[in-house]
Amino acid sequence: MSLERIRALGFSERDARVLWEHFDDAERRGKASHGHARITWLESLEGLEPAARPERVESAPGFERWHGRGALGYLTLAAICDAQLAAPPVEARLVVAERCFPTGHLGHWVRRLADGRLLAMLTATSPARLAPPGLAEPKLAGTNPLAIGIPSSDGRPLVADVSPARATWGDVIAGLAGEADVVPFGGEQAHKAFALAVGLQALVDALVREPGHAAVLLVAQPSADPVPALRQAAGGARLPGDS
Amino acid sequence: MSLERIRALGFSERDARVLWEHFDDAERRGKASHGHARITWLESLEGLEPAARPERVESAPGFERWHGRGALGYLTLAAICDAQLAAPPVEARLVVAERCFPTGHLGHWVRRLADGRLLAMLTATSPARLAPPGLAEPKLAGTNPLAIGIPSSDGRPLVADVSPARATWGDVIAGLAGEADVVPFGGEQAHKAFALAVGLQALVDALVREPGHAAVLLVAQPSADPVPALRQAAGGARLPGDS
User: Which chain A residue lies closest to B131 (C-alpha atoms)?
Assistant: First the structure.
């Protein structure tokens, strides 16, 4: 079974469970591109360091900087979420996670924080695969998603997790799309999705000290509880992140 | 001329110039929906309080809360930008601007910050005009844009300013679109733009203490200077925000 296959790669029991929960959550939420297909992908990776541990290298009021130190991005984000929940910001905190890849479906992490009553916004970079709309080159930005998680007193956080790409690399890995589908979404307005991808790329790249794929997380204390009213206004319509 | 018309509404010379610079910048950048057409719109507003002044009501390391106190959102954002440039964050700061409307084209404000060597991400809410894709109701989110500004050592910041709407209310005011065009962009993937709009709506609504249209700004010190290399990689391709 999946958990066994992850353990077999040499991860600790705890890390194997973190990875398995992420893949399983993706699968259950219909995000197969970040689901079990990724275990096969992990098995194919060279240079996997299952014993690597991320490190918090800087901590100040309203700011933290982490470094993956060779750990999988999933495990770095899990450690960062644990740290935020253990010591939440007084008001808000920006967390820069250097060398943090792969990060999976970002909705998973902001949901963990929202379940812990923290508001979160998260983005992460990945290999450059998006060229300006209509062009095959130059590829200037990753399929950098943006995820937003908002706690709700009704126990059902709002989780928006948007990729600027029509299909992600995960979709390609999962056999759900071809490489030619990894383009900015939006058809005649694809310049908007491209601008979002490039903007997020530059945001992350400007915040790191060491070049490489990275993640940027904003966590904050909510001052209000808008989700139940939003869900009521939606009537039967599905809100982002609802199952 | 435009500046005279703004002065005639009762604004101080300083405020009139802030407003004029915003409208003029919009016009020059081809964002007519936030340009001179807005002066006529201002003239039509009831309850304009040209003497109102925004107030910083909370200040802590990494966090500020402002309140518009009846001032136009443009002037509140201008005051916030001035304050960030005068006293930049050590690392990062989240700024919540309550009762901050209208805010105009957000690229204008993040560009000001990027010109001052600060990285910025800004969103703002507006009347709910976006319903789930394919539906006319319920309208659950404003056409809440997301703007990202990244300083560049070549003097040309990267400015991405993306609205999740195919056409904005400003386009309607400017006569460039009809109300039926104010829908999430993206065609068959419009659920992504809708999720972004709803996510930003809930993010802002969860951070304010007093319900109402508001803005949320993240400002941070850059640790790297990725834009010149990105521009070089782009070759002749236009980067977001380039004229």
Answer: A234
